[in-house]
Amino acid sequence: MGTDIGSNRPLIALTGGTGFVGQMVVELASARGMAVKGLARREPSSARGVTWVAGDLANRRALAELVDGVEAVIHVAGVVNAADPAEFAIANVDGTLAVLEAAKAAGVSRFIFVSSLSAREPNLSQYGASKARAEQYVKASGLDWTIVRPPAIYGPRDREMFELFRAAKWGVVPVPAGGHASLIHVEDLARLLLALVPGGEAVTSHTFEPDDGEPGGWSNDDMARAIGAALGRKPFVPHLSRWMLVCAAWCDQRLRGAKAKLTMDRVGYMAHPDWVVSPAAAVPPEVWQPRIEARGGLSATAEWYRREGWF
Fold it and tell me: Total structural domains in the chain?
């Protein structure tokens, strides 16, 4: 399945290669001549330069094939939103453990795990709890590991932040009352993941919280207005209390069922006031630094949505 990987090095095993972050990792790796083996239920027609292995995180045979002969694993795949909270444990915890076991069995030592800033507060959501548990498995694996906890990720192909862009187009961007958060563009995140592949003392056994370099992050108000400005709008920004978020989640579930974007689980961490990355968990600047300033990145993302007809 897929194309011949040839002799390019290093050879990376990538999970989640057909997703939002994974597609950007594939694009940048291909541009740098880094060979990639990707796990996918179905081979995508658009991603070239990748050897695709048919399967998912529950398929042990596919995972063994994925990691066979590679130098490093970048584990991106996971569930970020689920109608049934049990899906978080199945995908994010059991799935991570399965990839770790496959890597160890194949003698692959380098393991890069994409977690989430929500793992910092595991009591707020099932999603955050699942990522925190997965992190524990990674740390106990005995592998040469690095954990990356991204904040809110935006950029082309993103369907999560797109909800805010679509709201801004109509002139209203509701946000949780109070609070600050950090942002990172998907291209910057992908560059970081590839920069971590060689490993080394500066990154091994470290947990990093990367962002766009904005000191203190963004207030929810400023983020909403920046998204509006990317669309040439000055949106109304109503503040939603926790109770209002619960009501909105109930309505979204009634309207969209399993496809609801605002779930009760998400309310838990959306209402939390501090999703700003910690300076103590910054990536060493000699390894990686962000290049994409948020306002420019948001404008480029809005233009991508327009060009692709998402609105």
Answer: 1
CATH no. for residue 57? 3.40.50.720
**Residue 260, domain member (yes or no):** yes
Q: Report if residue 246 sits inside a domain.
A: no
Q: Tell whether 116 is covered by a domain.
A: yes
Taking the CA atoms of residue 213, residue 197, residue 127 and residue 242 in that order, the dihedral angle to the nearest 10 degrees is: 0
**Residue-wise DSSP of the chain:** -----TT-SSEEEEESTTSHHHHHHHHHHHHTT-EEEEEESS--SS--SEEEEE--TT-HHHHHHHHTT-SEEEE----S--SSTHHHIIIIIIHHHHHHHHHHHHT--EEEEE--GGGGSTTS-HHHHHHHHHHHHHHTS-SEEEEE---EEESTT-SSTHHHHHHHHTTB--EESS-EE-EEEHHHHHHHHHHTTT--TTTTTEEE------TT-EEHHHHHHHHHHHTT---B--EE-HHHHHHHHHHHHHHHGGG-SS-HHHHHHHT-SEEPPPGGGPPPTTT------HHHHHHHHHHHHHHTT--
Residue 79 included in any domain: yes
Angle at 292 between CA 81 and CA 156, to 5 degrees: 45
252-299: per-residue pLDDT in tens? 677 776 676 777 777 878 888 999 999 999 999 999 999 999 999 999
pLDDT band at 7 (very low <50, low <70, confident <90, very high): very low
What are the residues whose beta carbons fall under 8 Å from the beta carbon of 306, sequence distance 6 or more?
Answer: none
Which range marks the domain in which residue 112 is found?
11-236+255-307
